[in-house]
Amino acid sequence: MSVVSLQEDISVAYLGPAGSYTHEAAQERFVGNNFAYKPYASISDIFDAVESRRTTCGIVPFENSTFGSVVTTLDCFIGSKLRISAEAYLPVHHNLLSKSKLSELKKVYSHPQALGQCKKWLATHLPGVALVEVASTSYAAELAKEDPEAAAIASLMCAELYSLNVIERDIEDGKNNTTRFFILGGSTSTRTGDDKTYFLFTVDHRKPGALCDALKVFKDHEINLTKIDSRPSQQRPWHYAFFVEFQGHLEDENVQGALEKLKELCPNAKELGSYPNQRPKEDTY
Question: In this predicted structure, what is the pLDDT of residue 9?
Fold first, then answer.
């Protein structure tokens, strides 16, 4: 993961409390005494903090290699004016933390993503135990600290911070489990020659082939799509926003041509930012 180190003070909003994987990603991405890490209770709170300039920037989980997209982050982008300035990757190893023994557990707290990334292990080793979704893995550790019948799926950092025992290490289903994060700010990154861009658009669902027409624009301009998602548009029922990530930068000539055409075709179209490609070299599309 590349790091940022600046001379002036910068505040970084992350999904708290302390010990979350987002906190860990923030510490790896922003290195030095000039950075103040500020915890927030939800992903939407991070967006609000950056938009209102209570923090300089924010870091949010975007997708996991095992369990897919973080839909809360996608939903926040729909109404936001923030831009993505960078991405970061963090290998994630989940641990079962508790003050009790495995046989004494009646519930497991964690973020929905963490529960999903460990579902095979949980089904095998804790069948019938209640799985309780909470706002973050570190908040799960806080709850497990006060509940003798509970455990949390969280980081080893949380075991130390919240005085919990490590019942089992590395319980994630995918041993190459990795989470990708976006760095949020008011502007996008400059062109490097190896960049990706994130873009949001809607189509007229009443028109046959409207989505196909929009996606064909990328092919016509020789742009390689690397990811696509859809979410309710928040405009009206059964209407969707589409998110696409592709190789290239907003300053590239072919990208500019494609986005101009998309803005002609699509009722709503929004550039969410360009950022240097940080995908580990051993990972391929």
Answer: 79
Q: Where in the chain is the domain with CATH 3.30.70.260?
A: 195-273
5 falls in which pLDDT band (50, 70, 90)? very low
Number of neighbours of residue 86 by Cβ within 10 angstroms = 20
**Torsion sign over Cα 262, 268, 274, 280:** negative
Fold observed for domain 10-91+177-185 = D-Maltodextrin-Binding Protein; domain 2 (3.40.190)
> What percent helix, strand, coil does the chain show, rounded to 5?
30, 35, 40
What fold does the segment set 195-273 form as a domain? Alpha-Beta Plaits (3.30.70)
* Domain covering 95-168 in this structure, CATH number: 3.40.190.10
Q: What is the pLDDT of residues 20-75, one digit of tens each?
A: 999 999 999 998 778 999 999 999 999 999 999 999 999 999 999 999 999 999 99
Can you read off the two tokens belonging to residue 256? 């500019």
Q: What percent of the chain has pLDDT over 70?
A: 96
Per the annotation, the verdict on 179 as an active-site residue is: yes
Q: Where in the chain is the domain with CATH 3.40.190.10?
A: 10-91+177-185, 95-168
Residue 188 DSSP code: P
Enter the DSSP assignment of 189: P
Q: Which of 35, 47, 62, 181 is catalytic?
A: 181
Give the bridge partners for 90, in sequence order. Answer: 179
- Give the chain's end-to-end CA distance (angstroms, integer): 18
**Residue 199 among the catalytic residues:** no
Q: Give me the catalytic one of 179, 188, 197, 202.
A: 179
Q: Which tokens belong to 93?
A: 């190893």
Do 153 and 95 touch, CB atoms closer than 8 A? yes
Over residues 70-109, the pLDDT tens digits come to 999 999 999 999 999 999 999 999 999 999 999 999 999 9
Distance CA 258, CA 256 (A): 5
